[in-house]
């Protein structure tokens, strides 16, 4: 089923051109089902590109989905117009009394800073704490995943000698409905300077779903299935890594050429998208899981989450 979007939302025309169905409010109210309500905390500088990438993935669900976008109010946004933010984005004050079926916290280009040095860290941790009671399930992406693992579980990030950059294989190492339909080995884009050390992971609280010997754990989920941590970027477009590579070179950075990205690893050859199918499947599985877990009445979410947290504390 389609995503409900405002008529003049920038990503809508892109998605319609790709034959991805999006409808307006008037048509949506005639559908006699409750839409899933999703909240996307977009921390990426190029917000419109990230909006389109994520909407492309979640639109493949047969469920109608209402999407709200959330901005950080304690940070000055330099790469997205104030008009766009004011028109399409909410602040935490706008949503603090609301409940959502699902939430996505994106990555951000701040991973070389200590978490507490990020100028919006205090607001972000407040939002992450709120998500534990007011959201049924939360997906954390790349730096957002590292931030969530640090805040919720005390897992510190580990700096790499050079940027992990390219498309890397991973293996499903634990059977989980999130990876239903996955091949045993699959590929996903990586673009980061930091990761996590596997020996910091408490297996009683977190389960590693996918990993690789080179890049380590890449998909993790909390034992209560509330929080999902994806250290890569399955949402990336085919040419995103190439654009990042040329941008880094223009800035004078010594970024290595993206690995396993071009045909025969030759930048003069076409890019091979090895991750598109699993990206769609991952988000389809997540939304289906949220649909199965979330109550019909959104107002019931906080009480359910309190029961979940109490049960987790008791087990510990």
Question: Could you characterize the architecture of this molecule?
Answer:
This protein is 33% helix and 24% strand. It is built from 10 helices and 12 strands. The protein has helices at residues 10-17, 25-28, 47-58, 82-88, 92-95, 121-134, 143-153, 240-250, 276-293, 301-315; strands at residues 3-4, 22-23, 36-41, 65-70, 89-90, 100-105, 135-141, 157-172, 185-196, 206-212, 216-222, 227-230. α1 packs across α3. The termini are far apart. By secondary structure, the protein is an alpha/beta fold. The longest helix is centred in the C-terminal third of the chain and has 18 residues, at 276-293. Strands 1, 2, 3, 4, 5, 6, 7, 8, 9, 10, 11 and 12 form a 12-stranded mixed beta sheet that branches. The chain has one domain (3-310): Class I glutamine amidotransferase (GATase) domain (Rossmann fold), CATH 3.40.50. Its EC number is 2.3.1.31. It comes from Enterococcus diestrammenae. It catalyses: L-homoserine + acetyl-CoA = O-acetyl-L-homoserine + CoA. Keywords: Acyltransferase, Amino-acid biosynthesis, Cytoplasm, Methionine biosynthesis, Transferase.
